[in-house]
Amino acid sequence: MNILNNGRVNMVITNRVIRYAFHKNTSPNSIVTYGDVELPVGTMQNGTIADAQAFQRVIRQLVQENRWRRKKIAFCLVDDTVVIRDLSIPGTLSKDEAIGYIRTQIGHSFYLPFDNPALAIDVLRNDEETTDVRLYAYPKEKIDQFKHVFSAAGLHPIIADLTALSVYRYYVQTAETASDHTLLIHWNHDALFLTAFQHHKAVFNRHIKIAMDDEPAQETAEGMIDHYMTEINRMVDFYQYSITKGESRIEQLIVSGDFPYLSTAKRHLADRLELPIYEFPDENMSPTYVDLMGLGLKNGG
């Protein structure tokens, strides 16, 4: 067992709410307390802190109420601006050297839609000549925003993760046999995040904003779900015909998020796509917290 030093705060941040838990260690059953708090309107916009004072007040209150001062914290970011790209680099580089080399190539051999990225890589294949890697890039200033607020509130930020990776981590932890070709549909109140996983590594993602009233009528929700079914079906086809060149297809759907009509969306998915939908085990807590459970499994710091 990987014991965390005096436990760890885990926090998932969306544009509307903060979900939080305090874990004694990285066991899924080690949660001491958990909950969520709704952010004041306008606090977060497009995954960025728009009202720093309002965000700071929420974090400071959570720290004070739960006695988290001087605790470590891992947090999930909004996945709206993550870039996933496969690259080939010289085969003799260490992992740190590889990231340094990739930085020198930004703006030359490939481009990113933002400056000053935080980078991480997965090695896919390597030999003496070349190494194939999967690059994950995210705007560093967004991460630094959160780290600054957490540090000012007396917390010690040690891990910044992506929500899709956290949900998938919990899927792998709980599934008897994890599929090699999976589509994660993370459906939140204000956004739909689609991430395809191939052999347990994220290979492609898409972010779709959702304009929705706080309490949409069932009929309105049904129409909205049908609209997004088309986008999800396109993602399934893209994976089969563009990512795998017709050699493989999505075999498993993972559905998570805080969309109020998630069960209805799952029913539509089952009818339209005719693919199995993974059912997370009953942990005596809302399925909304699946992302938080997966974040709690991540080691580091």
TrEMBL record:
InterPro entries documented for this protein: FtsA/MreB (IPR050696), PilM (IPR005883)
Highest taxon of the lineage: Bacteria
Name this protein carries in UniProt: Type IV pilus assembly protein PilM
Organism: Lentibacillus halophilus
